[in-house]
Amino acid sequence: MPGGLIRSSQLSAIAELSITFSDGQIEITSRANIQLRAIHPQSLAQVVDGLASAGLFPSREHDRVRNIIASPFAGLDATELLDTRPLVRKLDDRLCADSECAELHPKFSLALDGGGKWFSRERDDLSMRALEVEGRLCFHLAIGGVPTGFGVTTDQAVDCMLEAARICLRVARQFDVPVRGRSITAVPGAMCHLIERLSDFLVPCPPPNNSGVEVEVPVGVVRTNHAGLISIVPSVPLGRLQAGQAQLISAIASDCGASLRLAPWRGIVLGTIPERAETKVIAQLHKSGLSLDGKDGYRGISACAGNDGCEASLADVRAHAMLLADRLAGQDTKPGWSVNISGCEKQCAMRNGATSELVANESGYNLKLHGISVASSCSPAAAIDAIIACHAGFSTEDRP
Question: Do 398 and 355 form a contact (C-beta atoms < 8 A)?
Fold first, then answer.
C-alpha cells in the first residue's frame, strides 16, 4: 500500500477476503502495508484474484518492492511544506513500470517526507525530506539514514529516487552486499559513487534540522489544515483490525467522503471527516471495540505474530502483549514510552529505541529496559511485572 493510501472499496474487499479465506483479521505493518495470515494453500489463487480485482496488484512482479513511505497525514498536516501524495502515486507508477526495480530487496523502502510531522521509525534505504532553501522548496536526500548534504528539486524527485534505487542495485551487486541503504553506505567509496552518478539531479542542500520522529502516536481526534474537517485515529491493538471493524471503517469513509491511510505505527487514519460527523463516527468506532482515548493499554506496545502465526517464534508473544495491555488499561500512557515484544532474534516487530524490549529465547525472554539488558531468561510474568514497574517510574527524560 504505497504511502499507506487505500480506498474504502479496497479495505472492504480485503476484509471480505479475510473473512472468507483467512483468519478474519487484517494486520497492518510498520511500513503501512497489509498482511493476511492463515490462508490455506488451496485458497491462495482466489485471494490473489480478489486482491487484483480490487486494484491492489498493478504489477505482481513489483508487489514486494512497492515500499513507499509517507506521512499518514500528508495533505492534512498544517506543518508540512508539501503534500507528497501525488509524488507517491507517480513514484509507484514509475516503479511498477521499471523491470530492474523488481530486483530490489523486499524490505527496500523509499520515503517521501513533506517536511511536516514524521512517524515512521524505519531507517529508510532512500529518503527525501522537503525543506525550504533560500526561498525554494527542495528535497534533501539521505541514504540508509545517512544525510548526503545534497538535494533535488521537487519536479525531479521521482526521477532521482528511481535512479538512486537502480544505482543501489548495481553497487550491491558489484560489492556483493544486500540491496539495503545501510549496507551500501558501509562500503568504502559507495556513497561518493552514488552521489557522483546522481550529479545531474543534485544540488548542495543542508540536512534538515527538524527531521526527528514524533514521540507520541496520535489517538482520537486530530485537527487538519482544512476548515471544518478533522482526522479520527482509533487505537488498533497490536496492529490487527478485525474484518468487521475494517468493514465499518470502510463504510464510514464512504458515507463521509473521507480518505483512508494506513499508518507506520500499525494503525489507520480516517482523514477529512466533516466535524459535524465527529460524535457519530466516534460512537460507531467505540461500539466496534476501537478505543479513541488511548487508555486501552495498547498504546506504545508493538509485537510480532508470535508462535500462533510464525513458526520461528519461541513464545506466544501476542498473548503476553495482551496481558501487559490488560495491566495498563485505564492509565494514561506516558509520552515516548514504548514496548517491543519479539518471538525470536529476528525481531520482526522491532521499533528502534523502545523503552522496554523483550526477545524470546528457549528459556524465556531477554529483557532490556532503557537499552540496558536486565535479564536473559525472564518468565513472561516477571517480564510483565518489570515493564509495569518501568512504566510507573518513566519520565520524558528516560526516552532512549
Answer: yes
pLDDT tens per residue, range 281-311: 999 999 999 999 989 999 989 998 888 878 8
Looking at the structure, tell me whether residues 175 and 279 fall in a common domain.
Answer: no
Among residues 172, 204, 236, the one where a domain terminates is 204
The share of the chain scoring above pLDDT 90, in percent, equals 80
Among candidates 79, 83, 74, 59, which has minimal Cα distance to 120?
74
Task: Say whether both 50 and 126 belong to one domain.
Answer: yes
Could you tell me the sign of the dihedral formed by the alpha carbons of 33, 38, 41, 46, in that order? negative
The CATH number of the domain where 82 resides is what? 3.30.413.10
- Tens digit of pLDDT for each residue in 110-141? 999 999 999 987 889 999 999 998 889 999 99
Q: Which residue, 149, 171, 204, sits at the end of a domain? A: 204
What's the CA dihedral at 337, 342, 347, 350 to 10 degrees? -20
Nearest to 30 by CA among 66, 58, 4: 4
Tell me, yes or no, whether 239 and 333 share the same domain: no
Cα–Cα dist 368/383, whole Å: 10
Is residue 213 one of the residues assigned to a domain? no
The larger pLDDT score, comparing residue 391 to residue 351, is at 391
**Distance between CA atoms of 92 and 101, rounded to whole angstroms?**
11
In a domain, 307, yes or no: yes
Alpha helix stretches (DSSP H) within 132-189: 157-175, 181-185
Q: Do 160 and 44 reside in the same domain of the chain?
A: yes
pTM above threshold 0.70: yes
Q: Does pLDDT of 21 surpass 60?
A: yes
State the total domains in the chain. 3
Among 82-96, 99-113, 194-208, 209-223, which is the least confidently predicted range?
209-223
Closest to 248 in 3D by CA, of 276, 284, 221: 284
- Coil/strand/helix, residue 270: strand
- Position 296 in a domain: no
